[in-house]
Every structure is written in structure tokens, then in C-alpha cells.
Amino acid sequence: MAADIVNLRQFRKQKARSEKEKQAEQNRLSYGRTKTEKNLTSALNEKAEKALDQGRLEKGDDGAGKD
Q1: pLDDT tens across 18-36, in order?
Q2: Which pLDDT belongs to residue 7?
Q3: I need a labelling partner for 13 at 20 to 30 A (CA). Which of 31, 47, 51, 67 fits?
Q4: Residue 43 CA: distances (Å) to CA of 22, 34, 35, 40
């Protein structure tokens, strides 16, 4: 019935390191993009916005459609 003896201070430090590494990995995925990737995303967003605006119907000021 011998149990493994664990140093709680070392255990907590190791757990904190592990959590910090997980957060760092998530940040690398979220924010770690190259300038080229950022420019590409920006260009694609502008293109999509332009295509959306082109399909928009504008209401005229001539009074048509009013009762």
C-alpha cells in the first residue's frame, strides 16, 4: 500500500506551466499571422464587401412606392 509522494508546490508549478503553454499555443494560432496572410484576409474582406454593396438595391427619392 505504498502511495506515490507528490510535492504539491512542484505539481502546481508544472500545472501552471502547462496552462501557460496551452494559452501561448492558442495565441500563436489566433495572432501569429504573417503580413502576407493579413493582407490577403483584408483584400478578401474588401472584395466581399464590394460584392455585397453591388447587389444592394437603393431606394429612389422620386416618391415611387409611397402611398
Answers
A1: 999 999 999 988 888 889 9
A2: 92
A3: 31
A4: 31, 14, 12, 5
Q: What is the pLDDT of residue 40?
A: 94
Give start and end residues of each alpha helix (H) in 1-67: 8-31, 35-54
Name the CA radius of gyration of the chain, rounded. Answer: 28
pLDDT at 53 over 70: yes
Q: In whole angstroms, what separates CA 34 from the centre of its chain?
A: 14
Over the chain, what is the mean pLDDT? 86
Taking alpha carbons only, the member of 27, 53, 49 closest to residue 41 is 49
Q: Cα–Cα distance between 43 and 67 in angstroms, integer? A: 43
Contact between 65 and 59 under an 8 Å Cβ cutoff? The reply is: yes
